[in-house]
Design the sequence.
C-alpha cells in the first residue's frame, strides 16, 4: 500500500484515474477558505477536470482555514502533496480518481497573517469560501449583518489581526488597493440563497466598521457572484479510510461522493475566471430559481429526514428513505407542499426534481449520517425550511407536513431519542434549543417564541395550531404515530 503523493501518480493502479497534466506547471489563482470534503469533491473537481483538458493551469487552488482545527487538515494534505482521492459511490459500481488542482495550503495562524499575504498576492483573482450556512454573521430571521457578534467586534477593532475569514479578506483587499493590485472576486460556495449577495453584505458591512472608504472601494470594485452548488458528500471516517485502500492507495483524507454534481454560477467575475462551463458548470445571469429549487427541495427535505431519523434512531439517510414512515413522510411533503412553492428551471420541473432527489437520497452506497445532515439546524431550518413555510402560509397552500417537521425538530432538540439514547449537542446554540424544547413539551408556544429563529411566524395562528397539535401527538403517542397520521390524512 503506497501513500498518496506526486511520486506515485505515474504508477497508479489501473482502475484509478490520475492527473494527465503536469502539476509542477500549475500556478496559483484561487484561495479557497474552508477546505473540507465538499470543496474537494465539487469545486476542486471541476477545476481538475478543466486542467485535464490542458486549460486553467494558472488557476491552481491554495487552501486555507481560520480555525485551529484546520491545521490538522493542512498537515494531512501537505504530507500527500495536496492530492485527494475521490471515490464515486454509484450503485452500479465504485470508481476512484486522484484530483490534483490544489497545490498548497497556507499556515493556519491566529492573526491570519499568512492568509492575508496570500490573498494580497496579485496572482490570486478569486477567493472562494465554504464556511457553512451559519458562518456569515447574519441574523437568521432578518438576514441583516450581526455587527454585535464578538468575532465581528474583534475584527472591526483589530483589522490588521482579524480572526475571521471576512476580516482577513478585508485586510488583503486593503493591501491590494494600496499596492494597485486591484480587486478579487469573492465566491461563496455555501448553501445559501443569494450566497454572493450575503458575502458582499458581510464583507462590506464589516469593512465599514473600521474603514468606510475601503468598504466603498470593495463594494464598487469587487464582485460576488451568486451560485448554487450540489453534490452529496459524506464525512470521512474509518470506513472511508479503509475503502480507499481497496483501490491500492493510502490516503489520509479521502473523499466519497455520489454520482451527481451540479454547479450553477452567476457570470460576474471582476478579475477573470476558469472556463468551468467546458466541464459541466452552468454559467447564467439568473441563479435564483436554481438556488430555490435545490435549497428547498433537496436541503429542506434533508432536514425533514435527518430530524426524524435522529428521533427514531435510524443512522443513515438511505435507511431513512427505506423506512416505511420516514420515507413516505418526506416524499409527501416534498411533492404536495414544498414543490408548490418552487418554480421550474430550464430542463427541470419541481416534480421531476423531487424524483431526482428521491433517487439520490435512496442511494445505498452513500453512507451519509443523519447526524451530519442534522448539524446546525438553527441555520439550516431557517434557511432551508422556514422560507417555504412562510410562502405556503402566505399563499394559503398546504403546510401540514411543514408544521409537523418543526414539531419533529423540537422533539429532536429535547435531546433524547425515543429509545432513550442521548442525542449529543449538534448545534452552535444547542443548549438554548434544548431548554426551549424541554419547556415546549408542556407549553409548545415556548418553542415558537424563539424569535431569533421564527420571527413573526410565532404569531401565525394557523401555524401555531398545527405545530401544537403535532408536538402534542408526538409526545403522547410517539413520532411513528404522528408520521402515520400525516401520511394517511
Sequence:
Amino acid at each position: 500500500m503506497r501513500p498518496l503523493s506526486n511520486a506515485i501518480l505515474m504508477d497508479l493502479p489501473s482502475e484509478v484515474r490520475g492527473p494527465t497534466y503536469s502539476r509542477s506547471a500549475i500556478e496559483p489563482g484561487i484561495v479557497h477558505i474552508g477546505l473540507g470534503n465538499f470543496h474537494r469533491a465539487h469545486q476542486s473537481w471541476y477545476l481538475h477536470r478543466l486542467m485535464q483538458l490542458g486549460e486553467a493551469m494558472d488557476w491552481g487552488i491554495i487552501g486555507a482555514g481560520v480555525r485551529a482545527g484546520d491545521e490538522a487538515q493542512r498537515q494531512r494534505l501537505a504530507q500527500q502533496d495536496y492530492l485527494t482521492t475521490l471515490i464515486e459511490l454509484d450503485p452500479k459500481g465504485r470508481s476512484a480518481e486522484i484530483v490534483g488542482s490544489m497545490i498548497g495550503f497556507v499556515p493556519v495562524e491566529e492573526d491570519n497573517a499568512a492568509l492575508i499575504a496570500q490573498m494580497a498576492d496579485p496572482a490570486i483573482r478569486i477567493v472562494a469560501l465554504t464556511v457553512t450556512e451559519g458562518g456569515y454573521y447574519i441574523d437568521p430571521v432578518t438576514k441583516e449583518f450581526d455587527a454585535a457578534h464578538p468575532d465581528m467586534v474583534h475584527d472591526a477593532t483589530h483589522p490588521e489581526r482579524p480572526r475571521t475569514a471576512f476580516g482577513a479578506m478585508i485586510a488583503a483587499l486593503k493591501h491590494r488597493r494600496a499596492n494597485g493590485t486591484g480587486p478579487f472576486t469573492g465566491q461563496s460556495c455555501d448553501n445559501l440563497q443569494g450566497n454572493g449577495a450575503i458575502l458582499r453584505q458581510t464583507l462590506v458591512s464589516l469593512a465599514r466598521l473600521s474603514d468606510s472608504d475601503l468598504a466603498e472601494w470593495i463594494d464598487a470594485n469587487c464582485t460576488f457572484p451568486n451560485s448554487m452548488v450540489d453534490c452529496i458528500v459524506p464525512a470521512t471516517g474509518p470506513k472511508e479510510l479503509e475503502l480507499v485502500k481497496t483501490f491500492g492507495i493510502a490516503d489520509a483524507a479521502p473523499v466519497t461522493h455520489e454520482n451527481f454534481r451540479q454547479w450553477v454560477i452567476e457570470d460576474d467575475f471582476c478579475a477573470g475566471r476558469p472556463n468551468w462551463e467546458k466541464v459541466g458548470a452552468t454559467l447564467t445571469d439568473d441563479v435564483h430559481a436554481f438556488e430555490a429549487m435545490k435549497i428547498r427541495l433537496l436541503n429542506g427535505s434533508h432536514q425533514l429526514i435527518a430530524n426524524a431519523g435522529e428521533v427514531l434512531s435510524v443512522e443513515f439517510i438511505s435507511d431513512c428513505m427505506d423506512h416505511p414512515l420516514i420515507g413516505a413522510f418526506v416524499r409527501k411533503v416534498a411533492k404536495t407542499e414544498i414543490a408548490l412553492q418552487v418554480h421550474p428551471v430550464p430542463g427541470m420541473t419541481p416534480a421531476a426534481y423531487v424524483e431526482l432527489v428521491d433517487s439520490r437520497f435512496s442511494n445505498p452506497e452513500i453512507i451519509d449520517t443523519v447526524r451530519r445532515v442534522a448539524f446546525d439546524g438553527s441555520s439550516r431550518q431557517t434557511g432551508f425550511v422556514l422560507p417555504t413555510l412562510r410562502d405556503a402560509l402566505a399563499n394559503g397552500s398546504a403546510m401540514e407536513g411543514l408544521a409537523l417537521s418543526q414539531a419533529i425538530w423540537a422533539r429532536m432538540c429535547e435531546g433524547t431519542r425515543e429509545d432513550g439514547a442521548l442525542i449529543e449537542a449538534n448545534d452552535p446554540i444547542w443548549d438554548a434549543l434544548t431548554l426551549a424544547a424541554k419547556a415546549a413539551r408542556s407549553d409548545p408556544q415556548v418553542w415558537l417564541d424563539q424569535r431569533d429563529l421564527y420571527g413573526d411566524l410565532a404569531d401565525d395562528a394557523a401555524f401555531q395550531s398545527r405545530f401544537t397539535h403535532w408536538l402534542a401527538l408526538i409526545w403522547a403517542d410517539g413520532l411513528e404515530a404522528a408520521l402515520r397520521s400525516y401520511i394517511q390524512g
Q: What stands out?
A: The first strand starts at residue 2 and ends at 3. Residues 2-284 form a domain with the Rossmann fold fold (CATH 3.40.50.720).
